[in-house]
Amino acid sequence: MKPLPLTVRLAAGLAVTAVEQARKLPRQLAGLPVTVVSEALQLSMRVQQRVTELAIKGDDALSVLRPAEQQPEWATFDEDEPEVGPPTADDPWAEEEQALAAEPPAVLPNYDELSLAQLRARLRTLSAEDLEELLAHERTHAARPEFTGMLTRRIANLKQQ
Fold first, then answer.
1. What are phi and psi of 74, to 5 degrees?
2. What does pTM read for this prediction?
3. Which candidate, 11, 54, 62, 134, has a CA 20 to 30 Å from the CA of 70?
4. Where is the DUF8129 domain (predicted)?
5. For 49-93, what is each residue's pLDDT tens digit?
6. Phi-psi group of 109: left, alpha or beta (phi > 0 → left; psi -120 to 50 → alpha; rest → beta)
7. Buried b vs exposed e over 8-46: b needs ≥16 C-beta within 10 Å?
C-alpha cells in the first residue's frame, strides 16, 4: 500500500489535534479565570520589582548630589537621653536584689504576679489604706505606670466618696 501524500497526513493530524483540544477545552475553561488572575498578579509583581529597582538605582545616582546626614534630627540614642531617676549604685544588680528581697504586700501576697486585669477585679474589695500600701509597694519595685495610675485613681475615688 502506497503512503498517502504528506498534505493529507498533515490535515488528518491537525483534525485529530483539534478534536483532542476541543475535548480538553471544558477543563481548561474552568481553570482559565485562575490562570488569568495568576498571570496578572505575576505581571504586577514584576512591574513593582522593576519600579523598586529603578528607584534604588536613582537613589544611588542622586546620593552623590545630596549626601546623607550624619545623624538625622529625629534620631535619638540611649546615650542622648537624660537619666531618669536616681543614678544607680556601683553594683548594677543592687536594685534588682533589693526588689527580690522585699516582702510582698500583706494585703495581696501574690500582688507581683497579678496582671492588670486581675488587680482591677480585686480593687473594689480593698480599703484606701490597703491601696496605699499596694501603691507604695508598686512605686518602690516595678513602678509600672499602668498599675500606679490605676491604684492612684482608685484611691482618689475612695477619698471622694
1. -85, -10
2. 0.40
3. 54
4. 112-159
5. 999 999 999 988 887 787 666 666 676 766 666 665 555 556 767
6. alpha
7. eeeeeeeeeeeeeeeeeeeeeeeeeeeeeeeeeeeeeee
